[in-house]
Amino acid sequence: MDELWLPGVIHRETEFVGGLTAACGPNALSMAERWADQSALSTLDVYRRMRAANLCDTSGSSTLSGLLTDAQRNHYTVASLPYHEPMPDATWRGFFQAHVGHQAIVFETANGQALVDSLTGKGENAHNLHYHFVMVAGWHPGGVSHHPQAHGKTLPPGWWCADGDNFDAGDVLQFYPDTVLAASKPCGALAITARAGSLGGGSSMGVPAGWKDDGTTLTAPNGVPVIRGMRAFVLANNWESDNWPLAPEAQLAQIEWGNLTHGPGARQDFRYRSLGVEHHADGSWGAVYRIWVGQDILALVSQLATAQQQIAQLQQDHQTDPNAAASLAALTQLAKALKLIAV
User: Structural domain boundaries of the chain?
Assistant: First the structure.
């Protein structure tokens, strides 16, 4: 294999944020998803949503299956190599080689203490570390490396990784030789696909044809604006030029009707899809993501069917029940608001 690494921007963040002590799982997943979206998603963002769904404990400790469930619930395309220990080298190598440089790989080790960065000589910020999660960002086949962090050095065959537990400070990758990674005993993995419609997820950023952008507001040909995180998402994701917004971004108490695990935040509906971003109780915002509109349609159709049934019943009862007329009027307005039938 040639030297490979993920295109677009790759960020590394320490796992020790917000008082968390064992958040390597949310940390590795957040770094993979941040690359997939070319967004500002953080470890705390992923920790909060996993904690809310009981997919990690209060310290951030999680399992590979918990990470997979969380990524799928948040609409990422994920390939998985289920946990198995001990895992034959050929098994994890085959998975890594199939995805490296194209998808962000999150893998679990059974011997995390073995991980030592060959560029700095720094190891893990832990004692007797066993199970640990790391993101793989690239592969080097051995020889002179052209990766910007290598500065033209000759390196052994190995893997470019984002490891939130390494003692190295800053937004930098770690280089783990292949023998070191093997010694860490990989025992399962996920591969997160970029959400952009082009190779790698960050290489086709730009203003869609016919749209205008002034650096703050992106305006579609129909004159509807796209701002803040929604704007950044459109610019980063090879957006279709005819996928216009139907209305400006709106603040809602519930941003998805078909998935009530997502609470308050902002939503913007476009011709082909909808975007959402959650507003957390502490005042922070999550990452913008694509909403599965089909779920919303089914939920709204169900609400409409219930309203129609109640309207039919109230139409029968309103002559004898003095309260029925007011209820009938309210339900009729609801049905009209759904705009799915003529009432």
Answer: 4-192, 212-291, 296-338
Cα–Cα distance for residue pair 290/74, rounded to 1 Å: 8
Instruction: Quote the percentage of the chain above a pLDDT of 90.
Output: 52
**Closest to 212 (Cα-Cα) out of 202, 200, 199, 221:** 221
d(CA 26, CA 15): 8
Of residues 258, 280, 254, 285, the one with CA closest to residue 267: 254
Could you tell me the two tokens for 215?
């650096």
Closest CA to 46 of 64, 33, 59, 63: 33
Q: How far apart are CA 38 and CA 205, in angstroms?
A: 10
Largest CA distance in the chain: 89
Check: CB of residue 68 under 8 Å from CB of residue 78.
yes
User: Quick check: helix, strand or coil at residue 214?
Assistant: coil
Q: How far apart are the first and last CA of the chain?
A: 64
Per CATH, which fold does 4-192 belong to? Cathepsin B; Chain A (3.90.70)
C-alpha–C-alpha distance, residues 42 and 27, integer Å? 8
- CB atoms under 10 Å from CB of 11, counted, come to 19
Q: Which pTM was predicted?
A: 0.61
Beta carbons of 172 and 181 less than 8 angstroms apart: no
68 by DSSP, 3-state: which?
helix
pLDDT digit string, tens, across residues 105-129: 999 999 999 999 999 999 999 889 9
Three-state DSSP at 62 gives strand
Q: Helices marked H in the chain — which ranges?
A: 24-37, 43-52, 64-73, 89-99, 178-183, 228-236, 293-317, 324-338
